[in-house]
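Duplicate of #3305? Posting structure anyway:
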């Protein structure tokens, strides 16, 4: 198999599995070429100068000069091919080693044979062949060099009829060539294994870095890495979304001066490691500070969490504790309440009761029913399960919901009016929880919103980059002093209400990281707004 300039690995045609990276292979080949060029120049300079040894060209001056000149010319031509990459790597490396063995053998013969010591230069060529091409090629070059040395000795023996022969020295040179070839082959294999291991580790580190970057960028919590001077090194997408920033800021003060002050307070006192940050749009972000030491420098990590996510965790813990307590209490109350209700019903059937006593039995029945409704709501709290969120297309879902709600409550179809924005609305929400919240809001609108004064409006819209549902009625609205208590348990302004409907609805919303709020419209109509998670935002929850 031949190599070309676009290959990343250059294998030897006689080897199995050996390979070196392209950049390193060409670099080694250039280094060997420079060695050849310098050696050829040295041969010629030493021959013509008075500093060279007397054995240079001792047997044949003409052969020495022709061989040296050919060595220099071939090195120059090879340099042109290598630096311009005219030929393939493998063929060029093989040509260099073959010409080395041939020309160095001729030079050795011209200088007096094996006794001149020129044969040792062949060892450099054999070692270079093992490193440049490797595999069984190294053994092939060693065998070729040994054969060349032996042939030169035989030719010299017959041509000059020397009395003393050097076959033993030729054999020792051949053995050294094979040893050098073997060692260079082992060294090349070791180098290859090290390079492969380094490449694998580099790929692993690169993959881990990409994975970490992906996780950080798609986390639901915002992450900001900053130095002590408040210069921001990195900010993920969630942090920019939570802080309503178009791009990565340069420093903390650009995000919020309050955040900058809180960071400096934490640096002075590490116990103050969290703060609630109020943004200009009245939303709140829960912020935590953490130390992030590295080998050479110390950084600081700021974690930004949507207050909805923070409230969700609190709500889950609260509902878990409340559910265990209320379930046991509700069951204990239900039994005696049933006995009271049954006794009141039997008493009301007595024909001899006065009108005043009958009024008392009606009070017993009315309040027993009310307490039973409260117990049902409390048991509903205790049966609360984890959110099973799905991707919901709000427009078709709301149309289907409103149709079923009108049928279930046997009301006029014109009582409600559904309006949707033209933008696509895709929410991440538990459909059962969403139905439960809307049931509560719509029933309250029917009960307190004066439907006789006009239609109850359901709006589906985008608000602050979140899909939202608004339920707007014609009621007189909640008084200012009651607004802070409207979502508290057991708070009601009605004599027949339990005060748990809005509390349960808000808890279900927070369980799904949604936000339920109340406000008055521009024309003083009561509006409950439910803002949901956008299902199109790919996030990783932690």
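Output from current build:
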């Amino acid at each position: 198999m031949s190599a070309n300039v676009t290959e990343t690995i250059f294998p030897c045609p006689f080897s199995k599995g050996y390979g070196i990276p392209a950049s390193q292979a060409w670099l080694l080949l250039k280094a060997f070429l420079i060695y050849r060029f310098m050696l050829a120049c040295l041969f010629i300079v030493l021959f013509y100068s008075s500093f060279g040894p007397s054995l240079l060209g001792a047997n044949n001056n003409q052969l020495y000069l022709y061989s040296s000149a050919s060595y220099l010319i071939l090195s120059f031509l090879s340099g042109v091919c290598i630096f311009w990459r005219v030929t393939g790597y493998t063929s060029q490396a093989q040509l260099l080693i073959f010409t080395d063995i041939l020309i160095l053998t001729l030079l050795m013969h011209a200088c007096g044979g094996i006794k001149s010591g020129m044969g040792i230069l062949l060892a450099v060529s054999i070692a270079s062949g093992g490193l440049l091409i490797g595999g069984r090629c190294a053994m092939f070059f060693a065998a070729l060099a040994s054969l060349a040395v032996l042939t030169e000795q035989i030719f010299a023996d017959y041509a000059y009829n020397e009395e003393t022969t050097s076959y033993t020295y030729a054999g020792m040179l051949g053995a050294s060539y094979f040893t050098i070839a073997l060692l260079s082959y082992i060294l090349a294999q070791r180098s290859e294994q090290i390079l492969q291991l380094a490449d694998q580790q580099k790929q692993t580190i690169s993959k881990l870095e990409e994975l970490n970057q992906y996780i950080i960028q798609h986390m639901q919590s915002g992450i900001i890495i900053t130095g002590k001077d408040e210069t921001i090194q990195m900010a993920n997408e969630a942090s920019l979304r939570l802080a309503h920033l178009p791009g990565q800021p340069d420093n903390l003060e650009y995000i919020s001066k309050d955040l900058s002050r809180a960071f400096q307070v934490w640096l002075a006192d590490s116990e103050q490691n969290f703060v609630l940050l109020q943004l200009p749009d009245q939303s709140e972000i829960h912020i935590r500070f953490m130390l992030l030491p590295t080998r050479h420098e110390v950084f600081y990590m700021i974690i930004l969490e949507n207050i909805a996510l923070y409230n969700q965790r609190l709500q889950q813990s609260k509902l878990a504790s409340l559910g265990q307590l209320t379930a046991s209490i509700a069951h204990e109350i239900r039994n005696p309440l049933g006995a009271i209700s049954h006794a009141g019903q039997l008493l009301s059937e007595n024909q001899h009761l006065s009108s005043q006593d009958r009024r008392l039995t009606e009070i017993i029945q009315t309040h027993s029913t009310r307490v039973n409704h409260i117990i049902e709501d409390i048991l509903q709290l205790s049966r609360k399960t984890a959110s099973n969120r799905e991707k919901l297309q709000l427009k078709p879902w709301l149309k289907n919901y409103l149709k079923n709600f009108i049928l279930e409550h046997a009301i006029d179809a014109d009582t409600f009016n559904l309006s949707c924005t033209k933008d696509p609305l895709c929410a991440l929400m538990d459909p059962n929880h969403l139905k439960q919240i809307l049931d509560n809001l719509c029933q309250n609108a029917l009960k307190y919103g004066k439907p006789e004064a006009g239609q109850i409006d359901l709006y589906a819209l985008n608000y602050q980059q979140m899909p939202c549902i608004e339920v707007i009625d014609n009621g007189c609205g909640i008084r200012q002093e009651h607004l802070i208590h409207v979502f508290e348990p057991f708070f009601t302004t009605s004599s027949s209400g339990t005060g748990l409907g809005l509390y349960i609805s808000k808890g279900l919303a927070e369980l799904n990281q949604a936000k339920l709020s109340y406000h008055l419209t521009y024309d003083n109509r009561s509006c409950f707004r439910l803002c949901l998670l956008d299902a199109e935002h790919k996030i990783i929850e932690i």
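Confirmed duplicate; merging threads. The chain has four domains: 22-209, 217-307, 310-382, 390-534. Residues 63 and 110 are 6 Å apart (CA to CA).
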